[in-house]
Every structure is written in C-alpha cells, then in structure tokens.
Amino acid sequence: MTGRLLLAAFLAMGLQAAPEPSMACHPITADWIYGRDLVAAAPSFAGLPPELPVSHSPVPGLERIFHPAELRRLAEAHHLSGAAVAENICFAWPLAPLTRERIAASIEQTLAGRHPRIEPVDWSLAPIPAGELVFPLSGLSALSEKPVIWKGYVAYAGDRRFSTWANVRVAIREPHLISTMALRVGESISAAEVKTEIYDGPLPREKALTSPDELTGLRARRDIPAGVTLFESSFEIAKEVERNELVTVLVEAGSAHIETQGIAEWAGRRGDVIAVRNPKTGRVYRARVEDKGTVRVVPGGAVGLVVEEKNKS
C-alpha cells in the first residue's frame, strides 16, 4: 500500500522513476528547472523569462516530465500562443556508474600525505550524478584489516548531496605521537611528554597527531593515560579566557581609557565576543577576547561600568 501511495505521489508531481528512460531526457544542472531549460528543450517556448523557476529538480534517478496539459497551462499563463504542447518534455540528471578509479582517487585525496594503500573491493551499483565524489573520514565504518564499508557522497548542484558507498581495504603509514605521561582533562602537553612511533596498518576512523608541532595551544578534552596514541579528538584548542575567570577589562569611552576587572561568564578564544560580569554591580556586558585573560568592551556593552569607574577617580 505504501509503495502504491508513493508511486501515485510521484505521478501527481510529474515525477517518474527512470531506470530505463522511455524518452530522451534533457540534462538538469541546477536545483530548479528554469525557463531557459524549457526553451532549450522546446524552442517554441522562447518567450519564457530565462530565470523563471518552472519546477524543482527531481532527485537523481527520477525524471521530471512536463505533460502537454501542464505545458499548455504554462504557455497560456505567459501568453505564448505559438508554443508547441503536443508532446511530453522530460528532464533528468545525467548519471554515470561509480568506478574503482574514482573511488581510489577520492580516498587518496581524503588521505593526502598519509601514504595510503587503497583497494576498492565492492561498491554501490547505483549510478551517480556529475560532481565531486567525497569519502570523508567520518564515513569509515570500522578499523579492520578486512574490507570495511566507507560511506561517501557526491556534492552536486550547490549544496546537494547524493549518498553512495564503497567496500574498501585501506592501510596507511605515518608517524603517530604516543603519550609518555598521563594527562588530566584541561592540561596541556609538551613535546617532552610524547614519543613518535611509525604506524603501518589499517586506517583509524580518528586522525592521530603526527608531529610535536601540532601540540602547541592544545589541552586535553578528557583524561589520557600514558602509552596511548594521541588523536585530534582528544584535544581542543586552549581558550584565552575560561568561564568564571577573573579578566582584565579594557574600556574606551571617548578619550578616556579605563582598565578594570570583570568575571567571564563564558569561555572564549581570541576574537570571540563573550559576556563579562562586573563583580561589584552584577551587571553583565559584552566584551571581545583580545589576549590571555584580557577582553575589550565592545560598543554598547559597557552599561554601568564606565560611570562607576569614573566615579572612583
């Protein structure tokens, strides 16, 4: 019953499944089928505005068919008395099969610099639209020496994505940083606290840190024991200002330059706008993080602060 309802909905919208098109379909290149597309398919519609959005494009694998009755209504609405409306006009995305070569090239790009060995074993038989084939690291299903499923997509028509997959065996060879000391959450790590080992094996789902230079400005997101591989996901960039930290507040009011203190309501990195509380009045204002432990009040954010500081002098 559900399948019948879906088919009825497709037919009502002028959409039809297109495993074997019964007519030559004109290519789709955008989210919409525009007036210029109809004109290219049927020159008798030359009076249509080129940028007129006529219909949403179907998903790849379906056809958008304009039947004579619909074409007749369109012609009448735009006063096109000479438009030919005797036959259907079909539009569909050009499709091509997924290939071993395209899979390998896409994964090679994802793993650039990691010396990958890529062996596609099996892949989706569904044809794909023209566009950039992407296999993001997040699409990898497991860490295994056996072939594993890697989910990918084709980026097409702006921000549209067409899902696909491949069953691949992938190995890499690269340096990995190993912790030599246990880390607590929030602690930073230095080059003296790691060692480098060459990893040669199945591709992990997470990206490992590969150089001591990558440690600069990082702090642990969670407790990390000694002797384990350090992954990017285990760290975050240290913030210049932490929540509830006492910070130096810089204020400019005309020609006056005031320096006072406040309590950060939010954590933030350099350039972030955060909320800061005046510890004496309790008022909260906005300030931009400038440096470690230093913020500058943004325009309109110093309500109740400047007056209080002036009264002190």
What does this structure look like?
By secondary structure, this protein is α+β, with helices and mostly antiparallel strands. It folds into three domains: 2-93, no CATH class; 94-238, Antifreeze-like/N-acetylneuraminic acid synthase C-terminal domain (Type Iii Antifreeze Protein Isoform Hplc 12); 246-312, SH3 type barrels. The chain has helices spanning 2-12, 35-41, 68-77, 100-110, 306-312; strands spanning 15-17, 26-27, 32-34, 53-56, 62-66, 89-92, 95-96, 117-123, 128-129, 132-134, 148-156, 160-179, 194-202, 218-220, 235-237, 246-253, 256-264, 273-277, 284-291, 294-297. Strands 8, 10, 11, 12 and 13 form a five-stranded antiparallel β-sheet that branches. It has a five-stranded mixed beta barrel with strand order 16-17-18-19-20. Strand 17 (256-264) and strand 18 (273-277) form a beta hairpin. It is flat. It starts with a helix and ends with a helix. The model is unreliable at 1-13, 18-22 and 303-313 (pLDDT under 50).
Essential attributes:
313 residues, alpha+beta, Type Iii Antifreeze Protein Isoform Hplc 12, SH3 type barrels, 5-stranded antiparallel β-sheet, 5-stranded mixed β-barrel, 5 helices, disordered N terminus, disordered C terminus
Topology:
Blueprint: H1 2-12, E1 15-17, E2 26-27, E3 32-34, H2 35-41, E4 53-56, E5 62-66, H3 68-77, E6 89-92, E7 95-96, H4 100-110, E8 117-123, E9 128-129, E10 132-134, E11 148-156, E12 160-179, E13 194-202, E14 218-220, E15 235-237, E16 246-253, E17 256-264, E18 273-277, E19 284-291, E20 294-297, H5 306-312
Parallel strand pairs: 2-6, 16-20
Antiparallel strand pairs: 1-5, 3-4, 5-6, 7-9, 8-12, 10-11, 11-12, 12-13, 14-15, 16-17, 17-18, 18-19, 19-20
